[in-house]
Design goal:
Length: 253
């Protein structure tokens, strides 16, 4: 059985950095191989992980649409071939980037085929970390309709927590199967306000942990360096402590 880990939250909460750190943490403790999936149309996970990519799954989808009428190869075979080409291989983990969303028109059939092939590909990896698109509109079309662990990322503001709460409730309304759901409050200066603590308690949101605001993360990102490589950083230490508590085998049992 695979462990599927998802990250979601509004833009600017640091979810992609946390997704990268989760990948690095799993690799460090020997939970490999891992597939890192960048399902955000504003793809940044490769930068966080220090990788580069040449192809995306969206390119494969577009090629499939343009190949209508070509009987030399089936759509399923074409998509599967292009999916394999889009996977960037690393030592302990691989990366696949979903790419830009659809343009004008509806290509539901193409997306269905793509999702089916991706699900088949995921079976080859005992661990997957999915960095979902920022905001809420993507939740109904998550790459995985089942997740073992789902992290909702927020900042320490009331507005940020309100957005996180909407995502928290929406996954329940859509009946997305999730074994364990956690809230992470990121970029916290000092302590959480009583108001924020009150919302978390009232809504019965399980708080996995709090990550402090950290200039080292900001400076590293500004310098174009992979933030997942960081070790001596208060934010990284807090994130790894959270993953040590939550990303364990019995959570997926």
């Amino acid at each position: 059985m695979s462990m599927i880990i998802g990250m979601a939250g509004k833009g600017g909460t640091g979810k992609t950095t946390l997704a990268g750190l989760a990948v690095r943490y799993l690799a460090k403790i020997g939970k490999v191989p891992i597939l890192a999936v960048d399902a955000d149309s504003n793809a940044n996970l490769a930068d966080v992980l220090g990788m580069t990519y040449d192809h995306t799954l969206s390119e494969a989808r577009e090629e499939m649409k343009s190949s209508v009428g070509n009987v030399s190869i089936t759509k399923d075979t074409l998509i599967e071939m292009r999916t394999q080409e889009a996977i960037v291989e690393g030592d302990d983990f691989d990366l696949v980037v979903m790419g830009q969303p659809e343009g004008s028109g509806c290509y539901c059939a193409a997306n269905s085929i793509l999702a089916a092939v991706l699900e088949k590909t995921l079976d080859n990896y005992p661990y997957q970390v999915i960095d979902n698109e920022a905001g809420m509109e993507h939740i109904s079309r998550l790459t995985a309709r089942y997740m073992d662990i789902f992290f909702v990322i927020s900042d320490a503001s009331r507005r940020g927590l309100t957005a996180a709460l909407r995502i928290w409730k929406l996954v329940d309304e859509l009946k997305i199967r999730i074994k364990h759901k956690y809230l992470i409050v990121n970029r916290v200066r000092g302590d959480l306000s009583d108001e924020v603590k009150g919302i978390i308690q009232k809504e019965n949101m399980e708080l996995a942990g709090v990550i402090p605001d950290d200039s080292v993360i900001y400076d590293t990102d500004q310098n174009g360096e992979p933030t997942s490589f960081l070790k001596d950083s208060p934010a990284v230490k807090a994130a790894l402590d959270i993953f040590q508590k939550t990303l364990v085998e019995d959570k997926a049992a």
